Amino acid sequence: AVTKFSGTTTAGTNSDSLMGKTIDALAHFSVVTSDESLVLVDLQGTHTLLYYTCLSHAIDGKSGLGDKGHAGIVQFKDQHQCNEICHALGFPRF
User: Fold this and answer.
1) Rounded distance, CA 44 to CA 23, Å?
2) Among 44, 76, 87, 92, which is most buried by a count of CB atoms within 10 Å?
3) Of the candidates 5, 90, 91, 89, which has an alpha carbon nearest to the alpha carbon of residue 46?
4) Is residue 39 within 8 Å of residue 76, measured between CB atoms?
5) Model-level pTM?
6) Beta partners for 55?
7) Phi, psi of 52 (to 5 degrees)
8) How crowded is residue 87: how many other Cβ atoms within 10 Å of its Cβ?
């Protein structure tokens, strides 16, 4: 079965599974490592952690379908709730 971990305009809040927490931390990682110029969104997959239909918001708004640009990155940062994986990896809180 496919699980939707986050939406295009909704950050993931997956507190009930290690996979969900890992995927939420991956989205956080994408913001941190891109110097806040990109975030991975609409993350979906199966128990094997195979992702597909992944979209992104890029600072220039040109990453493709569903890209909300800077506003999408800000929205993610406002919605994201750090979990223990984010903390263990030393990611800054937004």
Assistant:
1) 9
2) 76
3) 5
4) yes
5) 0.92
6) 41
7) -155, 165
8) 11
Nearest to 56 by CA among 2, 3, 6, 93: 6
Please provide the DSSP assignment of the chain as one string: --EE---SSS-----S-HHHHHHHHHHHHHHHHTTTSEEEES-EE-TT--EES-EEEETTS-SSTT--HHHHHHHHHHH----HHHHHTTPPP-
Q: What pLDDT digit, counting tens, does each position of 37-53 carry?
A: 999 999 998 877 667 67
- What φ, ψ does residue 45 adopt, rounded to 5°? 180, -170
Question: What is the token pair recorded at 24?
Answer: 């939420």
CA distance linking residue 4 with residue 46, whole number of Å:
9
What is the greatest pairwise CA distance in the chain? 34
d(CA 8, CA 79): 12
